[in-house]
Amino acid sequence: MSDTSSASSTAKTTLVVVPLYNHGDTIRSVVTEVLTYHPHVMVVDDGSTDGGAETITDLPITLLRHAENQGKGVAIQTAAQAALEQGMSHIITIDADGQHSAADLPAFFAAIAQSPEDIIVGHRDFDSPNVPESSKFGRSFSNFWLRLQTGKALTDTQSGFRAYPLILFEHLRFQQSRYAFEIEVLVKSAWAGIRLRSIPIAVYYPPAQERVSHFDKFWDNARLTVLNTGLTMRSVLPWPHRKITYCQKRQQKVSVLRPLQSIRQLLTENHSPRELAIAGGMGIVLGTLPLIAMHTIAILMISNYLRLNKVIAVSTSQLCMPPLVPAICIEIGYYLRHGHFLTEFTIETLGYQAHYRLWEWFIGSLIFAPVFAVIIGGSIYLSAHMIQQGIAHGRQK
Predict the structure, then answer these.
(1) Other beta carbons within 10 Å of 355
(2) Rounded-to-integer distance, Cα 61 and Cα 44, Å
C-alpha cells in the first residue's frame, strides 16, 4: 500500500476535534478550513457564553455541548469517548482560536499511518511573527519537566494540535480537566509505553491587542505546579507504571526472585541489555555502601537523574541486605586497617565500636562494591543479551 493510500485509509477512521470555549470570532473560519481537508469534524462546545457555537450549526459537523464550562481536558475526553462509539481509531485536536493551520492535517494523517500507536504533537514554528515571550518560556519549561518525569524528549509539549490513538483513553485515567490535562496525558502515555513524536506545523499569533486566551495565569499555573510536583514524585518511585499492551496480555511483575522473567519483561519495554546492566550495577554499588536507612532513596534519586531503570536498580540492591554483604565489607575494611580479619563478633566489637565498624564498612565497600557490581551487572547483561536474541529469533519465525 502506498503512503498516500495508507494516509487516506487512516483519515477515514480519524476524527478532527475542535474544543470550543468563547472563540466565537474564529470558530467558523477554523471549522470551514478543516472541512476543506477532512469531512469528519466534531466541535465540543465547553459551555461557551458568546454564541460561537450558533455560527456553525449549518455546517456538516457533529456538535456536542457541555451545559457549563468544564475545561479543555474534559472537552477532549468527551470527544474521545464519542469517537470510540463511532468506531474511530484516532482523534486530532486543533484549537478554535485560529492559531493552527488545517493545511497541516495531511501531515498528521501521514504520521498516523506511519506510526498508528504514537501520540503525534505539532511542533510550532516560533520564528513566526508576534510569538509572545511567555509562550517561548512556557514551552521550554514544560519540555524540561516532561524530560525529567519520563526521560523522553518532545519539542513542543504545549501544542494543542496533536493526534491521539484512542486506545489510550480506554486504558488510562486522568485527573486534570483543564489545560494541565495536555501535560498529564503526555506523561502518563509515555509511562504506559506510548511513543511521543513531533512533526513541524505552522502557527499564527495575532497582534497582542487582538489575542484571546482563556489561560488563567494564576490558577492554571498553580494547577500545572501541583501536577508537575505530583508527576515528578511518582516518577522516582520504584513501582512500575501501568503499561498499555495492544495484545492485552497481563503484565508480569518485576522481581529479584524471578530474574530471567523480569529481564524478559523489561526487554519488552524497550530497555537494552546495556541499560539494564548499568542500572543493576548502580543498585549494587549504592546498596553496598553504608547508607543506613537511605539506600532506596539514594537509588531512586540517582536512577531518576541518570534515567536508569529504577525497578531493576532497587531490585538488585536487595542482594546487599544485611548480614552477608555488610559483613564482607567490614571484614575487608578491618583487614585493610589492621592487617588481619575480625574474628570476634561481640557486643563490644559490633556494638560499642559501631563507629569503627561503619568506617571499616565504608572502606571495604569501596573494594567490594565495584567487584560485586561487575559480577551482577555482567550477569544481567549476558542474560539480557541471550533473552533478547531469543525474542528476536522467535519473531523471525
Answers:
(1) 8
(2) 11
- pLDDT of 256 > 60? The answer is no
Residue 274 to residue 267: CA distance in whole angstroms:
11
Q: What is the 3-state secondary structure (H, E, C) of 149-179?
A: HHCCCCCCCCCCCEEEECHHHHHCCCCCCCC
Q: Nearest CA to 196 among 111, 300, 295, 69?
A: 111
Would you place residue 251 in the very low, low, confident or very high pLDDT band (cuts 50, 70, 90)?
A: very low
Exposure on the CB side of residue 75, measured as CA atoms within 13 A: 33
Give the pLDDT confidence of 356-386 residue by residue, as tens digits: 788 999 999 999 999 999 999 999 899 888 8
Local structure of residue 240 (DSSP, 8 states): P
Binning the chain into helix, strand and coil, the percentages to the nearest 5 are 55, 10, 35
Measure the CA–CA gap between 283 and 371, rounded to whole angstroms: 13
The order of strands in the sheet holding 62-66 is 62-66, 41-46, 14-20, 90-93, 162-165, 119-124, 196-201
- Count of beta carbons in the 10 Å neighbourhood of residue 7: 20
**What is the Cα–Cα distance from 149 to 18, expressed in whole angstroms?**
29
Rg, Å, the chain Cα set = 27
The string of pLDDT tens digits covering residues 192-244 is: 889 999 999 998 876 655 555 656 666 667 877 888 788 887 776 656 677 77
pTM as predicted: 0.64
Helix, coil or strand: residue 92: strand
Residue 80 CA, distance from chain mean position = 20
Residue given cell 493551520 in the structure block: 101
Kindly state the cell numbers that stand for 111: 504520521
